[in-house]
UniProtKB/TrEMBL annotation:
Residue ranges of domain Aldehyde dehydrogenase in the record: 11-64
Keywords: NAD, Oxidoreductase
First-tier enzyme category under EC: oxidoreductase
Pfam families: Aldedh (PF00171)
EC number: 1.2.1.8
Family note: Belongs to the aldehyde dehydrogenase family.
Residues the record marks as active site: 47
Any GO MF annotation of the entry: betaine-aldehyde dehydrogenase (NAD+) activity
Annotated source species: Klebsiella pneumoniae
UniProt keyword annotation of Oxidoreductase present: yes
InterPro entries, A to Z: Ald_DH/histidinol_DH, Ald_DH_CS_GLU, Ald_DH_N, Aldehyde_DH_dom
Protein name per its UniProtKB record: 5-carboxymethyl-2-hydroxymuconate semialdehyde dehydrogenase
Length: 66
């Protein structure tokens, strides 16, 4: 399920719900900390606060990477 919440209560309820076995989250670090606090022993995967930097070196195969 995908959920876009603009306030903590809906997300907190989902993370804490007993039927939810795992949580995947992309977003800010503050929200990620809140999820970790509320997830208990559930599995979770997060991508937090990154800006997706990319390094391209001189020997890169540009055609292969495109």
């Amino acid at each position: 399920m995908w959920c876009r919440a603009t306030a903590p209560p809906p997300g907190d309820a989902l993370v804490r719900h007993h039927d939810v076995r795992a949580v995947s989250f992309t977003g800010g670090t503050a929200t990620g900390r809140n999820i970790m606090k509320n997830a208990g022993l559930k599995k979770y995967s997060m991508e937090l606060g990154g800006k997706s930097p990319v390094l391209i070196f001189e020997d890169a195969d540009i055609e292969r990477g495109a």
